[in-house]
Task: structure prediction
Amino acid sequence: MLSKIIDAVREAGKLILNADDIEVASKDGGANYVTKYDFMVQEFLCKRLKEIVPDAGFVGEEGSGGHEKAGDGYCFIIDPIDGTTNFICNYKLIAVSVGLALDGEPVLGVVYNPYLDEMFYAEKGKGAYLNGKKLIIKDRSLNEGLLCFNSSPYNKELRETLFKLLKELSYQAVDIREIGTAALSICYVADNRNAAYFSLALSVWDYAAAAVIVREAGGELMTVNGENIGLYGTSSLVAANRTAMKEFFAIAEKVSLA
Ligand code: IPD
Ligand code: CA
Ligand code: CA
Result:
């Protein structure tokens, strides 16, 4: 099943690589954009994934069928293009993200950047991989790596708290990054490009697939309040190795997250 899903995601990536007139529209009258390729890729994936797991449900960011909860049985959780603003602005950092949950628990994740031909994937209990190479998270301090964050482009009311927290954390890390795609930011924790990543608000399709990858690489995931991550609606998220996670919470405790 995993290799068939990987093939489908790679093909979806080709649609993005061949994109020409992308037809940008605003979803909410603000900076939350969508293009014809977001819809096209989701439609393509739903069709292909249905052939692989016929009785699966779907949670997707775009279009019809996009409810926000993975219920009983198999359910695919799809973000056709994670990093739409990067896509529009011609930054080559985007991901096609496909997670699979079973009875509400994430069991498989595939995250693909077609521009770099980087395919991250993991199955519960079977390890995480990048282009066939096993991923193992290094246990290290925040001050030995990059801290990646999410600027909350669609929840600007969070920015005051976000930047207060970020300022404190930034002194502990080698440097900070905002790369415009949550799915890749989390996968980059799995392959040690980032020591940690945090966001005050993500949708389930932003992290469902990457969550399996980071866990299978030996990393930890929590909400910024130290709770387990659920598979519904919106959630905050911290992904890190064990030591960096402890350091994150030691600093977050000093900053009011209310
Ligand atoms: C967004 C990206 C971005 C993050 C936003 C997400 P989209 O997803 O992951 O990095 O800051 O919170 O919603 O809209 O490009 O699929
Ligand atoms: Ca997304
Ligand atoms: Ca998206």
